Amino acid sequence: MAIFRGLSAFPITPADHNGRVETDALGNLLTRLIDASVQSIGLLGSTGTYAYLSRAERERAIKSAAECTGGDVPLIVGVGALRTDEAVALAKDAARFGADALLLAPVSYTPLTEEEVYQHYRAVAGATELPLCIYNNPGTTHFGFSVALLERLAWATNITAVKMPLPADGDVSADLRRLGDALPDGFLIGYSGDWGSAAAMLSGADAWFSVVGGILPEPAMNLTRVAMAGDADATKRIDARFQPLWDLFKQFGSLRVVYAVANALSLTPAQPPRPILPLDVKDQDRVVTALEGLL
Amino acid sequence: MAIFRGLSAFPITPADHNGRVETDALGNLLTRLIDASVQSIGLLGSTGTYAYLSRAERERAIKSAAECTGGDVPLIVGVGALRTDEAVALAKDAARFGADALLLAPVSYTPLTEEEVYQHYRAVAGATELPLCIYNNPGTTHFGFSVALLERLAWATNITAVKMPLPADGDVSADLRRLGDALPDGFLIGYSGDWGSAAAMLSGADAWFSVVGGILPEPAMNLTRVAMAGDADATKRIDARFQPLWDLFKQFGSLRVVYAVANALSLTPAQPPRPILPLDVKDQDRVVTALEGLL
């Protein structure tokens, strides 16, 4: 599925302190992504704080985004929820309101078994005909997919891609080989973890599921183009400009930093949902400095 | 606060597959706890699947429980939620509908900082006048409290107790000394992790926050009485009867096992919320065998 190739840009979902989505601000963010010709938009990902938004607000965000893209850029919508019936309902909502594809994380409270995650995915994937990308993000869901489970899921009709975390040992090439050997032909493999994604693309990853792409789409597209073309020198040069931002992502978590970027660029005054706190003023200054090399 | 002393029994919250609480079945479970004279009831804890129930269903469960206890047994109500405003609303609901105390876990999706957790607790504790117990359960929330953070929170007016996980090194005595040295006089320290709680009570813990207490209150009260009285021999003897059940708790997670116990005792046919799956039939048989030494 071409929809899961290239730069998938994950914007924040600006909302007020009651969790009501500010659709005008969201529209402004999305317009930047469309103008930069990102390959897809990852709405309501972790960066889009899907876990913190009600079903009704997620509906409003999807409708607003579908109206904004008008079908020009594929819309991937996160449909994760703790309960299987809720995730199924969110998947149906997403299909009804204009999503082109789904992204599903195995959100957990009680730690889940492999069989539980398998059944959960089959239920959600079977709820619509949209292609579905497995969201493997142990840092937030506390569930790590084994290659065997990915393989099992990859045989389901419309489960067509996986969004991987960077491997702990840093060796994306080996990770891609291991996954490629196990997964069916045509099953796409992308990475998140912005600081390692250029290397992942150089190693042959199909997609970059990107936080920075959702807020700084032009620089992220520049990096994507050279990395996807296999130009190691240009990739290294452009990636170096992002380094101060990667350092902040690693220190504070990309979510807090990307809100500070959105604030610094006057794109929205929105803040992350409490309990998540905005960065301190001195760290906001570091964000502004980090942006200087990129704008 | 005496409310956080002794056996705090955490029942499941029977619900149908749509997440609608079955208040009659809940009432039957609670009556068993009252009849066994447990020191408190921990409604809507992790075992009570609070994370999987809507605000409306949590309201129904609290109202039903308050009616059932009639004030005879203190009712501690879990009010955890990902969003601070939701946890505040749940705390106010709990106070309005009959809770005697609150239990708050730092539920997370985006990993939280200490300051974020601090602010979250202050907001929820400040929302009502009920005493609040910190629910330190890194296995589900993926946030572990430092002693320094517990100390900071313990100075808030109505934060009066902590529910601790068993220490990784197994040395509850050392854990209790370290906490006792740091925390204010009168701040109560209890443990969950049923298989280590008898040892914790022998070491001087104030409370046992118990999964098994919510489904087998008589045997759990027997264990509590001898352990709290410091009778090491009797504690060892009674704890040994639970060993087959502890083994199952450790292997499958206590939640899945306790549903199988409830089913085996014909207390309710309810199953855990999907994606959580019931035990296989052969493992259900092991549960029945484990019960033989206890009934």
Task: Explain what the structure shows.
- The structure is a homodimer of 295-residue chains.
- Chain A is of the alpha/beta class and 295 residues long.
- Chain A has a single domain (2-229), classed as TIM Barrel, CATH 3.20.20.
- The first copy, chain A, is 48% helix and 12% strand.
- Chain A has twelve helices and eight strands.
- In chain A, strands 1-2-3-4-5-6-7-8 form an eight-stranded parallel beta barrel, surrounded by seven helices.
- The longest helix of chain A has 21 residues, at 232-252.
- The first copy, chain A, starts with 5 loop residues before the first strand and ends with a helix.
- The mean pLDDT of chain A is 97.
- Chain A binds chain B through residues 17-19, 46, 51-52, 82-85, 106-107, 109-113, 115-117, 119-120, 123, 139-140, 142, 253, 255, 272-277, and chain B through 17-19, 46, 49, 51-52, 82-85, 106-107, 109-113, 115-117, 119-120, 123, 139-140, 142, 253, 255, 272-277.
Topology (elements, then pairings):
2 copies of one chain form a homodimer.
Chain A: E1 6-9, H1 23-35, E2 40-43, H2 55-69, E3 75-78, H3 84-97, E4 101-104, H4 114-125, E5 132-135, H5 138-141, H6 147-154, E6 159-164, H7 172-182, E7 188-191, H8 194-202, E8 207-210, H9 217-228, H10 232-252, H11 254-264, H12 281-292
Parallel strand pairs in A: 1-2, 1-8, 2-3, 3-4, 4-5, 5-6, 6-7, 7-8
Helix pairs in contact in A: 1-2, 2-3, 3-4, 8-9, 8-10, 9-10, 10-11, 10-12, 11-12
Task: Name the features.
295 residues, homodimer, 12 helices, alpha/beta, TIM Barrel, 48% helix, globular
